[in-house]
C-alpha cells in the first residue's frame, strides 16, 4: 500500500476503497504536448481529464497544478537575456492557458471544475483564496490552481507544494514520463536502478530532480508524501489512489 499521510483529527475519512481523501496532481506543461514539439494536444488533455474524472467519481477530492513549459519557460527566457521577473510572469500566464485547456477537457466529461489563479485575471479565473478553494473541493468540484505562487523566482513545483499544504492535501502525485525515481535517467542509462522509497533528506542530499529543492523541503517540513509515477500508463492515477504500489514515494524516513 502507498503510505497514508499522518492522520489529522479534523480530516474526514477517505472514500471507501481509497487510500487518500484529497490529493494534488502536479503535471508538467510538457505532459500536455503529446507528440507535438509545442502547445497542447487535445487528445492528451482529454486522456488526462478522463483519469482525473475517474478518481473524482470515487469521491476523491482533487486539485491540479500544471506547469507552462509547453508554451513558455521563464528560466530559459531569462537565460537568453530577458528580465527574470518579466519572464516568470509570462510563464505564469502560460499555466493559465494550460489550466483553461484542462478545465475544458474536464467539463466535456461533466466534471464541475473551477480554475483559480494566483495572478488576478478575473475574466477567465477566480482569484486563489484558500478557504474558497477548500470549499470547492468539499462541494465536489475539481480545482485547477494556475499562476504558480503569483511570485517570480518560484517554480510550479514550489507552487504545487505550497497549494497542497494550503488545501490540506494528503499527498502530491507528481506525474512524470518514467515509473518512479531512479539512480540515473532510465531513458538514457539502462543500468539505472529504481528507488521505490526515499526520505526527503536523501532526495535533497543526492540532488535527485524529483521536484525542486524548495518544494521538497516544504513537503519535508509538513510530512507530506510525494508519489512519483508514470503518467503515460493509463490508470496509474486511480491505482495510486486505491493504494497500489505505483512508482516511487518520497516520505518521512525514521
Task: Provide a descriptive summary of the structure in words.
- By secondary structure, the chain is α/β, with parallel strands linked by helices.
- It has one domain (22-251): Carbamate kinase.
- Helices cover 35% and strands 18% of the residues.
- The protein is built from eight helices and eleven strands.
- It has a nine-stranded mixed beta sheet, with helices on both faces. Strands 7-8 form a two-stranded antiparallel ribbon.
- Strand 1, helix 1 and strand 2 form a beta-alpha-beta unit.
- Helix 6 (200-206) packs antiparallel against helix 7.
- It is globular and about 45 Å long.
- The two termini are 18 Å apart.
Order of helices and strands: EHEHHEEHEHEEEEHHEHE
Radius of gyration, rounded? 17 Å
CATH fold call: Carbamate kinase
Estimate the strand proportion. Answer: 15-25%
Oligomer: single chain
How many domains? The number is 1
Main sheet summary? 9 strands, mixed
Q: State the helicity in percent bands.
A: 25-40%
In total, how many beta strands?
11
CATH H-level superfamily: Acetylglutamate kinase-like
Instruction: Describe the global form.
Output: globular
Number of helices: 8
Tell me the name of the CATH class.
Alpha Beta
Which residues sit in consecutive blocks of at least 5 with pLDDT less than 50?
1-5
Strand order of the largest sheet: 4-3-5-2-1-6-10-11-9
Overall mean confidence score, pLDDT = 92
Structural class, judged by helices and strands?
alpha/beta
Please name the CATH architecture. 3-Layer(aba) Sandwich
Straight-line distance between termini: 18 Å
